[in-house]
């Protein structure tokens, strides 16, 4: 049989590729959040200062969490102190001892738990109040927003530390008092920033479409405005933690903290009362002061990096 007389081979029908099942709305939302988190990390890791601050915070946070395992809780006792009063640094006590003979290194590790807790909770309370006030004022506007912003301006011009001292003085001396005192006095800056961002978001066309489709005030604020101001809130939170830690240390140094707990500011106050400045016992003053400065610097570096990631124009201007 010649090639010309060969019958043509019948075409095999192509098997259609299996199409993936449609994803639910919740699955799509999770995928978008994961992709957003990946993009955020890819941009964040380009900032050397942010990575340095994150590494320092991770080390300090891990040390604070493992404090009961690293040094135990018996090191806080003033009656069973392992050393003598105000020993200089040695192999047994790398950072010396305090006026009761307790290890300064152990006290420093335990103090990180209180200082970090107060800083995180106080900053969260401050940002929550500021975000709520800013979103409400920016959304409603009119005389209501004018009254709210005049109250905000009054808090803004008043010294935050003075208001915190007044609240810590009239309330009972405890950690929660310090948290409330810092949180309710440091929110105005966040409120003004969030209000400006809310006004910018409210002017976008999709907000008008949401109103035309019957979206109420609560729907617009929670589903449209709040997600758009959350990056600003996140950046403000990271920057506010360092300020809260410094304020807590100041209140404790002035004797307005909880005397029953160990914090870095309380350690400075104890050193002042023991006369460490005049007697030259530098190991009583230097460790808590350096720890406060390092944590504040680490949070500031992280906050600046977060700002640059969430606002690329800010990073370009720098």
Helix and strand layout, with pairings?
Layout lengths: L24 H20 L3 H18 L1 H4 L33 H37 L1 H16 L2 H11 L4 H9 L4 H15 L2 H8 L4 H37 L10 H10 L2 H4 L2 H29 L1 H6 L1
Secondary structure tally: strands: 0
Mean pLDDT: 84
Largest sheet: none
The sequence of SSEs as H and E is HHHHHHHHHHHHHH
Beta percentage is: under 5%
Gross geometry: elongated
Rg, nearest Å: 28 Å
Q: Which architecture would the CATH scheme give at its second level?
A: Orthogonal Bundle
- Per DSSP, the total helix count is 14
CATH class: Mainly Alpha
| CATH topology-level name | MetI-like fold
CA-CA gap between termini:
81 Å
Question: Roughly what percent helix?
Answer: over 70%
Which secondary-structure class do the elements indicate? mainly alpha
How many domains? The number is 1
CATH superfamily, by name, is: MetI-like
- The low-confidence runs, each spanning 5 or more residues with pLDDT under 50, are 314-318
């Amino acid at each position: 049989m010649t090639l010309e007389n060969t019958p043509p081979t019948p075409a095999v029908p192509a098997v259609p590729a299996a199409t993936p099942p449609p994803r639910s709305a919740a699955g799509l939302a999770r995928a978008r959040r994961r992709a957003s988190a990946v993009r955020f990390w890819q941009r964040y890791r380009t900032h050397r200062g942010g990575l340095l601050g994150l590494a320092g915070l991770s080390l300090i946070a891990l040390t604070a969490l493992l404090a009961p395992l690293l040094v135990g809780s018996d090191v806080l006792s003033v009656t069973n102190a392992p050393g003598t009063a105000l020993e200089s640094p040695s192999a047994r006590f790398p950072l010396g001892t305090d006026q009761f003979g307790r290890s300064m290194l152990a006290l420093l590790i335990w103090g990180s738990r209180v200082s970090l807790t107060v800083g995180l909770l106080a900053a969260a309370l401050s940002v929550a109040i500021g975000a709520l006030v800013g979103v409400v004022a920016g959304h409603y506007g009119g005389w209501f927003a004018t009254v709210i912003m005049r109250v905000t301006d009054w808090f803004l011009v008043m010294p935050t530390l003075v208001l915190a001292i007044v609240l810590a003085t009239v309330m009972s001396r405890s950690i929660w008092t310090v948290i409330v005192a810092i949180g309710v006095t440091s929110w105005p800056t966040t409120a003004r920033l969030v209000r400006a961002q809310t006004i910018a978001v409210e002017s976008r066309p999709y907000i008008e479409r949401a109103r035309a489709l019957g979206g109420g005030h609560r729907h617009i604020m929670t589903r449209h405005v709040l997600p758009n101001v959350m990056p600003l809130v996140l950046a403000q939170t990271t920057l506010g933690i360092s300020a809260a830690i410094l304020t807590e240390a100041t209140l404790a140094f002035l004797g307005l903290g909880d005397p029953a707990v160990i914090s870095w500011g309380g350690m400075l106050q104890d050193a002042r009362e023991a006369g460490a400045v005049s007697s030259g016992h530098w190991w009583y003053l230097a460790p808590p002061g350096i720890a406060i400065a390092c944590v504040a610097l680490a949070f500031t570096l992280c906050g600046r990096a977060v700002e640059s990631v969430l606002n690329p124009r800010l990073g370009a201007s720098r």
